Amino acid sequence: MSGVSSAGERTVLAVAAHPDDEVLGAGGTLSKHADAGHEVHVLVVTEGATQQYDDESLVAQKRRETEACARRLGVSEVHFGDLPDMRLDDVPHVEVNAVVEEAVEQYRPEVVYTHSDREVNADHRALYDSTLVATRPGSGVERVLAYEVPSSTDWTGGDRPQFAPNVYVDVSDHLDAKVEAFAEYESETREFPHPRSAESLRARARTRGAAAGVEAAEAFSLVREVRESV
């Protein structure tokens, strides 16, 4: 089981395709980083609305919700890439790369959280690939972790590879912060038993916690780690 160290100053970047991915996947962990005194940044790469809803005013609403969520979690700053929602697989790969690379170069994070490639959502898979480019060896990033997104990662079916976590962060003391932060996304919350409901988020955290021997946890897949010592 892996936790979040409070030793030293650290900078953390959470990369999300859409508003709410960051809190669904790593909200408790980001809150834990913030409480440890780490500098936490969130990058939302798309505007998150226009391809799903026929109402461009939702772009502004989701931006407000993202910022409110970030305040709840203790995030230092939120950044928006404004690429087209649900179309990252159509955007030239180099353009998606550039959005993530700019954030990595500007904020120099040691730890990056991003989407898994074990996904039903094409935007998520595209962003995973771009994160690999932006955090390649020599970028200064020491650790890259992929998170799961309820209603996306867990809907990958058939014989496709499924999300397989191998890192767990104890968020027992930060689960309430995660659920309360997600509640700021009024446009995204659903009624139980939908995965994007407060009850489902708590149930998932309890299940992941049971797998790790703690009260509540968030699960990640380790993508890359660079160590100076063993």
Automatic annotation (TrEMBL):
Q: Which InterPro entries match?
A: GlcNAc_PI_deacetylase-related, LmbE-like_dom_sf
Q: Look up keyword Hydrolase and say if it applies.
A: yes
Q: Which Pfam families match?
A: PIG-L
Write down the top EC class of this protein: hydrolase
Q: Give the EC number(s) listed in the UniProt record.
A: 3.5.1.-
Q: Which GO terms describe its molecular function?
A: hydrolase activity
Record protein name field: PIG-L deacetylase family protein
Q: Which organism is it from?
A: Halorussus caseinilyticus
